[in-house]
């Protein structure tokens, strides 16, 4: 059956800020408490969506989450009116206030793990909202992520949206940032690759020493069960703990895949040879050959890969059978990466085009092109059954640009998070957005 891949990009919210909350994310930590530009961030993201849609790629969006998270603040003892809650939190627990204002839902690669209908036992597309329980500022996201996914994919004949896994360390789940689907074509059965950082119940397994391993093997296995995946076509691979300690907090910072191509760094996996062997055998079961594109450390050191977000790019299939690599401008500013990409495109392989975007507002907060999107492969019937109001069109682009220009600030300082007017501005903006997208009642 024919199917098409849609990328659902996160629409950056009106309170986009740099709080530096994500220990292990080097870029996020490096820009802690600097001023942000929410308007520019949203416009940069919209420009990316518009350009890819205009090229004929399937493009949609996931709306931002409401901020601040008053449920979090009230659950830990801050009381009174909304303004009083903000004032008390700013005075007594400014870091927790920053958590309540976290901009991280913009990175929809962490919203959920997705398995298309061609892979699932019941023939439906499955979503499991990620619990993101490794970080306080992200651990509350799954409720709204599931709510949004159910609003967009509400036809239960075609879709199943699962709640997040139990919020315990054993089931640490970071969503599609540690999941890659490989296939011969999007509408046929594929191979689902889960990359985990540690195993909760294997005390002897290698683990990082400096930064946390956020994804567990147990969580990956649970998602595969919920989605009804075939054991023959499901592969579990451990991420190299040494690269986690170098700032590779998710697999999508060190590897990216699409169709039958896996673009990865030499140091991505704890056992590179074993990982490739498993993938080749699983790909053989679906009648496909694995096209492994290996980047050697000698060509691109891990530090350069992290600084440029080379692997946090998007691999997109083109009509001519070749692939385009969607990269941030930073890839052209890191010498080793720029040289590698020039040779890659000139080398006659499957990747023959680079598409550049200015995503500096997102990059400074620790997320590149791949962080901003959730891959969803849909048949024609499934694409017709999902909510159409989130599909990127030229008309929607102009509507959303006008909405951003109306509601977003062009400068946000850390001290502004205590301003009750900001909370009102965000609430009013999102209420209007829900109407523009045709999703009434999207926010609680």
From TrEMBL:
Q: Please give the start and end residues of each transmembrane region.
A: none
Q: Could you name the domain of life of the organism this protein comes from?
A: Bacteria
**Pfam families (alphabetical):** AstB
What are the record keywords, sorted? Answer: Arginine metabolism, Hydrolase
Per the record, what are the reactions this protein catalyses? Answer: N(2)-succinyl-L-arginine + 2 H2O + 2 H(+) = N(2)-succinyl-L-ornithine + 2 NH4(+) + CO2
Quote the Gene3D superfamilies the UniProt record gives.
Succinylarginine dihydrolase (3.75.10.20)
Which pathway does the record list? Amino-acid degradation; L-arginine degradation via AST pathway; L-glutamate and succinate from L-arginine: step 2/5
Q: Which residues bind substrate?
A: 19-28, 110, 137-138, 214, 252, 365
Record has DNA-binding as a keyword: no
- How does this polypeptide assemble, per the annotation? Homodimer.
Query: What family does the entry list?
Result: Belongs to the succinylarginine dihydrolase family.
Q: What PANTHER family does the database record attribute to this sequence?
A: N-SUCCINYLARGININE DIHYDROLASE (PTHR30420:SF2)
State what this protein does. Catalyzes the hydrolysis of N(2)-succinylarginine into N(2)-succinylornithine, ammonia and CO(2).
Q: Which NCBIfam families match?
A: arg_catab_astB, PRK13281.1
Q: What is this protein called?
A: N-succinylarginine dihydrolase
Q: Which organism is it from?
A: Duganella lactea
Q: What does UniProt list as this organism's lineage?
A: Bacteria, Pseudomonadati, Pseudomonadota, Betaproteobacteria, Burkholderiales
């Amino acid at each position: 059956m024919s199917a098409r891949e849609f990328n659902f990009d996160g629409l950056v919210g009106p309170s986009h800020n740099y709080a530096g909350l994500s220990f292990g994310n080097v870029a996020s930590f490096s820009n802690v408490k600097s001023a942000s530009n929410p308007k520019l961030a949203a416009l940069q993201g919209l420009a990316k969506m518009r350009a890819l849609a205009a090229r004929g790629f399937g493009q949609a969006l996931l709306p931002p989450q409401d901020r601040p998270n008053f449920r979090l603040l009230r659950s830990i003892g801050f009381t009174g009116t909304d303004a009083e809650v903000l004032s008390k939190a700013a005075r007594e627990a400014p870091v927790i206030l920053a958590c309540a204002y976290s901009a991280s839902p913009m990175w929809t690669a962490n919203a959920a793990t997705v398995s298309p209908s061609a892979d699932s036992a019941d023939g439906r597309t499955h979503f499991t909202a990620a619990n993101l329980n490794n970080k306080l500022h992200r651990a509350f996201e799954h409720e709204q992520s599931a709510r949004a996914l159910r609003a967009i994919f509400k036809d239960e004949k075609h879709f199943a949206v699962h709640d997040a896994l139990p919020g315990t360390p054993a089931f640490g789940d970071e969503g599609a940032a540690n999941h890659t689907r490989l296939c011969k074509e999007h509408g046929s059965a594929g191979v689902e690759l889960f990359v985990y950082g540690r195993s909760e119940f294997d005390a002897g397994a290698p683990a990082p020493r400096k930064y946390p391993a956020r994804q567990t093997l147990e969580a990956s296995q649970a998602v595969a069960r919920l989605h009804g995946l075939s054991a023959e076509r499901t592969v579990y691979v451990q991420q190299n703990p040494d690269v986690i300690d170098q700032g590779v907090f998710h697999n999508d910072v060190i590897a990216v895949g699409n169709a039958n191509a896996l673009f990865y760094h030499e140091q991505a996996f704890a056992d590179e040879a074993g990982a490739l062997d498993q993938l080749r055998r699983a790909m053989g079961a679906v009648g496909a050959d694995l096209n492994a594109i290996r980047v050697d450390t000698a060509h691109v050191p891990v530090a350069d890969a992290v600084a440029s977000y080379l692997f946090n790019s998007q691999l997109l299939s083109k009509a001519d059978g070749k692939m385009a690599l969607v990269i941030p401008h930073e890839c052209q500013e890191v010498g080793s990466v720029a040289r590698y990409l020039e040779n890659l495109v000139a080398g006659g392989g499957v990747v023959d085009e680079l598409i550049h975007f200015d995503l500096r507002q997102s990059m400074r907060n620790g997320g590149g092109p791949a962080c901003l999107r959730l891959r969803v492969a849909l048949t024609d019937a499934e694409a017709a059954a999902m909510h159409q109001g989130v599909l990127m069109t030229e008309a929607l682009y102009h509507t959303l640009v006008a909405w951003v220009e109306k509601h977003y600030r062009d400068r946000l300082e850390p001290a502004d998070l205590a301003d009750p007017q900001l909370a009102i501005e965000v609430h009013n903006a999102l209420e209007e957005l829900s109407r523009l997208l045709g999703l009434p009642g999207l926010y609680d």
